[in-house]
Specification:
Keywords: Hydrolase
Radius of gyration: 17 Å
CATH class: Alpha Beta
Low-confidence stretches: none
Number of strands: 10
Organism: Actinotalea fermentans
CATH topology: Rossmann fold
Largest sheet: 6 strands, parallel
GO molecular function, one term: hydrolase activity
Strand order of the largest sheet: 7-4-3-8-9-10
Structural class: alpha/beta
Protein name: Cysteine hydrolase
InterPro entries: Isochorismatase-like_dom (IPR000868), Isochorismatase-like_hydrls (IPR050272), Isochorismatase-like_sf (IPR036380)
Helix content: 25-40%
Bound molecules: dicarbonimidic diamide
CATH architecture: 3-Layer(aba) Sandwich
Protein backbone atom coordinates (compact mmCIF):
# COMPACT_ATOMS: atom_id res chain seq x y z
CA UNK A 1 0.00 0.00 0.00
CA UNK A 2 1.14 3.56 -0.65
CA UNK A 3 0.25 6.44 1.63
CA UNK A 4 0.41 10.04 0.43
CA UNK A 5 0.37 13.11 2.65
CA UNK A 6 -2.89 14.92 1.83
CA UNK A 7 -5.73 17.00 3.21
CA UNK A 8 -7.67 16.34 5.35
CA UNK A 9 -5.71 13.15 6.20
CA UNK A 10 -3.35 10.77 4.36
CA UNK A 11 -4.58 9.08 1.17
CA UNK A 12 -3.77 5.37 0.97
CA UNK A 13 -4.02 3.34 -2.22
CA UNK A 14 -3.14 -0.07 -3.53
CA UNK A 15 -0.96 0.39 -6.63
CA UNK A 16 -2.79 -2.51 -8.31
CA UNK A 17 -6.04 -0.53 -8.15
CA UNK A 18 -5.09 3.03 -9.01
CA UNK A 19 -5.38 5.07 -12.22
CA UNK A 20 -4.30 8.56 -13.23
CA UNK A 21 -6.97 10.82 -14.72
CA UNK A 22 -5.73 13.67 -16.93
CA UNK A 23 -8.78 15.81 -17.55
CA UNK A 24 -9.07 18.03 -20.63
CA UNK A 25 -5.46 19.20 -21.01
CA UNK A 26 -6.57 20.39 -24.45
CA UNK A 27 -5.16 23.16 -26.58
CA UNK A 28 -8.69 24.63 -26.69
CA UNK A 29 -8.44 25.38 -22.96
CA UNK A 30 -4.72 26.04 -22.61
CA UNK A 31 -3.63 27.93 -25.73
CA UNK A 32 -4.46 31.24 -27.33
CA UNK A 33 -7.20 31.08 -29.95
CA UNK A 34 -9.15 28.27 -28.30
CA UNK A 35 -12.47 27.90 -26.52
CA UNK A 36 -11.12 29.13 -23.17
CA UNK A 37 -9.86 32.36 -24.66
CA UNK A 38 -13.08 32.84 -26.65
CA UNK A 39 -14.80 33.20 -23.28
CA UNK A 40 -12.44 36.01 -22.31
CA UNK A 41 -10.09 33.97 -20.11
CA UNK A 42 -6.35 34.35 -19.62
CA UNK A 43 -5.33 30.87 -20.73
CA UNK A 44 -1.72 31.32 -19.61
CA UNK A 45 -2.93 30.73 -16.04
CA UNK A 46 -3.37 27.04 -16.76
CA UNK A 47 0.14 26.41 -18.01
CA UNK A 48 1.68 25.99 -14.54
CA UNK A 49 -0.08 22.62 -14.40
CA UNK A 50 1.95 21.14 -17.25
CA UNK A 51 5.32 20.53 -15.60
CA UNK A 52 4.06 18.85 -12.38
CA UNK A 53 1.54 16.80 -14.34
CA UNK A 54 4.30 15.61 -16.66
CA UNK A 55 6.23 14.35 -13.63
CA UNK A 56 3.17 12.46 -12.39
CA UNK A 57 2.53 11.05 -15.87
CA UNK A 58 6.15 9.87 -16.02
CA UNK A 59 5.70 8.19 -12.63
CA UNK A 60 2.57 6.31 -13.74
CA UNK A 61 4.21 5.31 -17.01
CA UNK A 62 7.37 4.08 -15.31
CA UNK A 63 5.31 2.03 -12.82
CA UNK A 64 3.03 0.64 -15.54
CA UNK A 65 -0.06 2.05 -13.80
CA UNK A 66 -3.05 2.97 -16.01
CA UNK A 67 -3.48 6.47 -17.41
CA UNK A 68 -6.74 7.86 -18.77
CA UNK A 69 -6.94 11.12 -20.71
CA UNK A 70 -10.22 12.91 -21.30
CA UNK A 71 -11.12 15.47 -23.95
CA UNK A 72 -14.21 17.66 -23.90
CA UNK A 73 -15.70 18.10 -27.34
CA UNK A 74 -18.36 17.30 -29.86
CA UNK A 75 -19.06 15.38 -33.03
CA UNK A 76 -18.34 17.38 -36.19
CA UNK A 77 -22.08 17.51 -36.99
CA UNK A 78 -22.71 18.84 -33.43
CA UNK A 79 -25.57 16.39 -32.93
CA UNK A 80 -24.37 15.86 -29.34
CA UNK A 81 -24.27 19.57 -28.49
CA UNK A 82 -27.18 20.84 -26.46
CA UNK A 83 -28.44 24.31 -27.46
CA UNK A 84 -28.09 25.27 -23.78
CA UNK A 85 -24.32 24.70 -24.00
CA UNK A 86 -23.94 26.25 -27.46
CA UNK A 87 -25.92 29.41 -26.82
CA UNK A 88 -24.98 30.37 -23.28
CA UNK A 89 -22.78 33.40 -22.60
CA UNK A 90 -21.30 35.84 -25.04
CA UNK A 91 -18.10 34.27 -26.40
CA UNK A 92 -16.19 35.74 -29.35
CA UNK A 93 -16.61 32.34 -31.06
CA UNK A 94 -19.08 29.57 -30.29
CA UNK A 95 -18.49 25.82 -30.14
CA UNK A 96 -18.25 24.51 -33.70
CA UNK A 97 -17.13 27.82 -35.21
CA UNK A 98 -13.81 28.11 -37.02
CA UNK A 99 -10.94 29.51 -34.97
CA UNK A 100 -7.17 29.64 -35.42
CA UNK A 101 -6.89 26.01 -34.21
CA UNK A 102 -9.85 24.75 -36.23
CA UNK A 103 -13.44 24.38 -35.09
CA UNK A 104 -13.81 25.06 -31.38
CA UNK A 105 -14.26 21.95 -29.22
CA UNK A 106 -14.91 19.74 -32.22
CA UNK A 107 -13.35 16.28 -32.28
CA UNK A 108 -10.56 16.09 -34.81
CA UNK A 109 -9.68 19.78 -34.80
CA UNK A 110 -6.20 20.83 -33.65
CA UNK A 111 -7.58 22.74 -30.69
CA UNK A 112 -9.43 19.68 -29.42
CA UNK A 113 -6.11 17.84 -29.08
CA UNK A 114 -4.12 17.48 -25.87
CA UNK A 115 -1.11 19.79 -25.41
CA UNK A 116 2.02 18.09 -26.76
CA UNK A 117 3.78 18.00 -23.37
CA UNK A 118 1.04 15.74 -21.95
CA UNK A 119 0.07 13.88 -25.12
CA UNK A 120 -1.16 10.31 -24.65
CA UNK A 121 1.13 7.42 -25.58
CA UNK A 122 0.15 4.05 -26.99
CA UNK A 123 -1.87 1.96 -24.56
CA UNK A 124 -3.38 4.89 -22.66
CA UNK A 125 -7.13 5.39 -22.77
CA UNK A 126 -8.36 8.57 -24.48
CA UNK A 127 -11.95 9.29 -23.63
CA UNK A 128 -14.09 11.81 -25.52
CA UNK A 129 -16.87 13.41 -23.53
CA UNK A 130 -19.56 15.91 -24.52
CA UNK A 131 -20.05 17.29 -21.03
CA UNK A 132 -18.06 18.59 -18.13
CA UNK A 133 -18.12 15.43 -16.03
CA UNK A 134 -16.03 12.52 -17.32
CA UNK A 135 -18.65 9.91 -16.40
CA UNK A 136 -21.57 11.56 -18.21
CA UNK A 137 -22.26 9.91 -21.60
CA UNK A 138 -18.97 7.97 -21.56
CA UNK A 139 -17.82 4.44 -20.69
CA UNK A 140 -15.38 5.63 -18.01
CA UNK A 141 -17.10 3.76 -15.19
CA UNK A 142 -17.05 0.51 -17.19
CA UNK A 143 -13.36 0.97 -18.01
CA UNK A 144 -12.45 1.58 -14.37
CA UNK A 145 -14.54 -1.29 -13.01
CA UNK A 146 -13.24 -3.70 -15.67
CA UNK A 147 -9.71 -3.01 -14.47
CA UNK A 148 -10.60 -3.14 -10.78
CA UNK A 149 -9.69 0.50 -10.25
CA UNK A 150 -10.90 1.88 -6.92
CA UNK A 151 -8.60 4.89 -6.45
CA UNK A 152 -8.00 7.84 -8.77
CA UNK A 153 -5.21 10.39 -8.89
CA UNK A 154 -6.80 13.40 -10.55
CA UNK A 155 -5.14 16.12 -12.63
CA UNK A 156 -6.61 18.49 -15.19
CA UNK A 157 -8.33 21.71 -16.09
CA UNK A 158 -10.31 23.49 -15.01
CA UNK A 159 -10.49 22.81 -11.29
CA UNK A 160 -13.99 24.13 -10.69
CA UNK A 161 -15.55 22.92 -13.92
CA UNK A 162 -14.53 19.57 -15.46
CA UNK A 163 -12.33 18.44 -12.57
CA UNK A 164 -15.00 19.28 -10.03
CA UNK A 165 -17.81 17.62 -11.99
CA UNK A 166 -15.68 14.51 -12.48
CA UNK A 167 -14.58 14.04 -8.88
CA UNK A 168 -18.12 14.52 -7.65
CA UNK A 169 -19.36 11.93 -10.14
CA UNK A 170 -16.52 9.60 -9.07
CA UNK A 171 -17.35 10.09 -5.39
CA UNK A 172 -20.98 9.13 -5.90
CA UNK A 173 -19.83 5.95 -7.66
CA UNK A 174 -17.62 4.90 -4.75
CA UNK A 175 -14.22 5.85 -6.17
CA UNK A 176 -11.66 7.50 -3.89
CA UNK A 177 -9.97 10.52 -5.49
CA UNK A 178 -6.73 12.31 -4.69
CA UNK A 179 -6.82 15.66 -6.47
CA UNK A 180 -3.36 17.16 -7.03
CA UNK A 181 -3.49 20.90 -6.36
CA UNK A 182 -0.51 21.84 -8.55
CA UNK A 183 -1.70 19.59 -11.41
CA UNK A 184 -5.10 21.23 -11.57
CA UNK A 185 -5.74 24.81 -12.63
CA UNK A 186 -8.32 27.46 -13.23
CA UNK A 187 -8.61 30.79 -15.01
CA UNK A 188 -9.81 32.06 -11.63
CA UNK A 189 -7.33 31.46 -8.77
CA UNK A 190 -10.05 31.98 -6.17
CA UNK A 191 -12.24 29.29 -7.78
CA UNK A 192 -9.29 26.89 -7.80
CA UNK A 193 -8.73 27.40 -4.08
CA UNK A 194 -12.43 27.21 -3.23
CA UNK A 195 -12.98 24.04 -5.22
CA UNK A 196 -10.02 22.32 -3.56
CA UNK A 197 -11.25 23.41 -0.14
CA UNK A 198 -14.72 22.02 -0.90
CA UNK A 199 -13.32 18.63 -1.97
CA UNK A 200 -11.42 17.95 1.25
CA UNK A 201 -13.80 19.65 3.71
CA UNK A 202 -16.01 17.70 6.11
CA UNK A 203 -13.63 14.75 6.29
CA UNK A 204 -12.93 14.43 2.54
CA UNK A 205 -16.57 14.72 1.57
CA UNK A 206 -15.57 14.61 -2.12
CA UNK A 207 -11.94 13.50 -1.93
CA UNK A 208 -8.40 14.25 -0.79
CA UNK A 209 -6.18 17.14 -1.90
CA UNK A 210 -2.43 16.70 -2.23
CA UNK A 211 0.50 17.75 -4.40
CA UNK A 212 2.65 16.11 -7.03
CA UNK A 213 5.64 16.29 -4.68
CA UNK A 214 3.75 14.49 -1.93
CA UNK A 215 2.76 11.75 -4.36
CA UNK A 216 6.27 11.37 -5.75
CA UNK A 217 7.76 11.36 -2.22
CA UNK A 218 5.43 8.51 -1.25
CA UNK A 219 6.66 6.14 -3.95
CA UNK A 220 9.48 3.89 -2.70
C1 LIG B 1 -14.61 24.15 -19.22
C2 LIG B 1 -13.31 22.24 -18.59
N1 LIG B 1 -14.04 24.95 -18.31
N2 LIG B 1 -12.57 21.27 -19.12
N3 LIG B 1 -14.19 22.88 -19.40
O1 LIG B 1 -15.50 24.58 -19.90
O2 LIG B 1 -13.17 22.55 -17.42
Amino acid sequence: MITVTADPFPFTFDPDHVALLCIDFQRDFMEAGGFGESLGNDVSRLRTTIEPTKRVLDLFRSQGWPVIHTREGHRPDLTDLFPSKRDRGNPSLRIGEEGPMGRLLVRGSAGHGIVPELAPVEGEVVLDKPGKGSFYATDLETILRARGITHLVVTGVTTEVCVQSTVREANDRGFESLILADCTGSYFPEFHESALAMFSAQGAIVGWVGTSDALLDAIP
